[in-house]
Amino acid sequence: MTGQTIGKVHLGKLLGEGAAGVVYHGYHTTLGIEVAVKILKINRADREDHVYQERFRREAQLAARLEHPGLVRVLDFGDHNGQPYLVMNYVDGYSLAHYLKLRKTAIDERTVVKVLYAAASALAVAHDAGIVHRDLKPANLLISKKGQLKITDLGLAREDGMANLTMDQVTVGTPAYISPECLMPGGRADQRSDIYSLGVVAYRMAFGKKPYSGSLQQMIHGHLGGRARFDEASECSPETVAMIKKMMAAEPQNRFQSCNELVEHIRNVVNPRIIDVKPKTRNGTDGSSNSMSRPSDFRGIVGFLDGRLGESSSMREGGKVMHTTRNERQMVWALLAGVVLVAGTGYLFFN
User: Fold this and answer.
1) Which of 22, 72, 157, 160 has its CA at a distance of 20 to 30 angstroms from the CA of residue 42?
2) Cα separation of 199 and 191, whole Å?
3) Chain-centre distance of CA 235, in angstroms?
4) Cα dihedral sign, 238-241-247-252
5) Beta-bridge mates of residue 151
6) CATH number of 92-339
7) Considering the chain, what percentage of its residues have pLDDT values greater than 90?
8) Sign, Cα dihedral of 271, 275, 280, 281
9) Distances 71 to 119, 207, 252 between C-alpha atoms, Å
């Protein structure tokens, strides 16, 4: 759809494609800014499901009212040839999934806790507004080039969990992060479901692997039975491991009951040994000059990804296209010039 116009947005290159939809870079002709446009993939039943359509409209309106540096802002929404779409702020950066794909080993404790703190702080705002993510996973945690973590795709997943899982979604890993209650017939997600999924993300970072793998049935049994092992090798302290274990409790009532509770636990129990986050001031803001919500928090991750992926990359026709940097192109030309020079010198010498 590159080159087409949806609403007031002129679509540019395809940024990526997943089970839930396709994402394009775009230019908003009225606002004069870069945006990201996500066109949702829905089947014929969803198009005729007025409950689904109404919930999408309601949650898109709620998401548009949210203002938090850790949430990707929804600017507009609509329908294009029967396909719902969202217009969002464009985040120039990478997803946490990219980082974890390159760093297959366990991540250091400070980074794990910082990601948890930043994500939980942003989710708390969404939950207070009545929005549950329902599909929290590394691909939906973006890290901007400025080093700020942002959550995208708020409230876009269906409420009936596994009832809508397709083979495409199985391959991208949604079942690996879904909460047990969403796997049950008629199960409904609430804020504790997001806490569980965030706990699985933390487990992946802390232990260098997902808690459950294998076939779809094996993953389902793992989630429902709470069979994750927490005695694997990790750089995290017992306090942080215990926090992740509580987040991943099979029964919702045994987890942290809200993201606000999780944030306070990080501040008071886990944080003092790892990160410098001072208590909140009277006006409710963080009193630390080194607050974890500052844009510089994840510049180490950005630097690592810039070094491994170059200036940028994009998804096209199911594969990743790597875009070379200026320095890389200059180096290639220099090497080619050197080869030509050596070949020419050899030809003249032997001639």
Assistant:
1) 72
2) 13
3) 23
4) negative
5) 71, 141
6) 1.10.510.10
7) 34
8) positive
9) 9, 26, 24
Residues with Cβ within 8 Å of residue 234, at least 6 apart in sequence: 106, 206, 207, 241
135 is catalytic: yes
Could you tell me the pLDDT band of residue 202, with boundaries at 50, 70 and 90? very high
Topology at the third CATH level for domain 1-90: Phosphorylase Kinase; domain 1 (3.30.200)
Closest Cα partner for 91 from 127, 41, 38, 129?
Answer: 38
Q: Are 134 and 189 in contact (CB under 8 A)?
A: yes
The model's pLDDT over 135-153, given as tens digits with 9 standing for 90+, comes to 899 999 999 988 899 998 8
pLDDT at 323 over 90: no
Q: Which of 68, 73, 80 is nearest to 33 (CA)?
A: 73
| Positions of E strands within the chain | 5-6, 9-17, 21-28, 33-40, 74-80, 83-89, 93-95, 141-144, 149-151, 312-316, 319-323
Sorted by where each begins, the domain ranges of the chain are: 1-90, 92-339
Catalytic one among 46, 76, 79, 135? Answer: 135
Count other Cβ atoms within 10 Å, centred on residue 23: 21
Tokens of 107: 């991540």
CB 54 within 8 A of CB 60: no
The residues that bridge with 93 in the sheet, in sequence order, are 144
Could you give the angle at the alpha carbon of 149 between the alpha carbons of 154 and 247, nearest 5°? Answer: 70
Token pair in block for residue 145: 């080039």
Please write the tens of the pLDDT for every residue from 34-92.
999 988 877 666 666 677 677 777 778 888 888 899 999 888 888 888 788 889 999 99
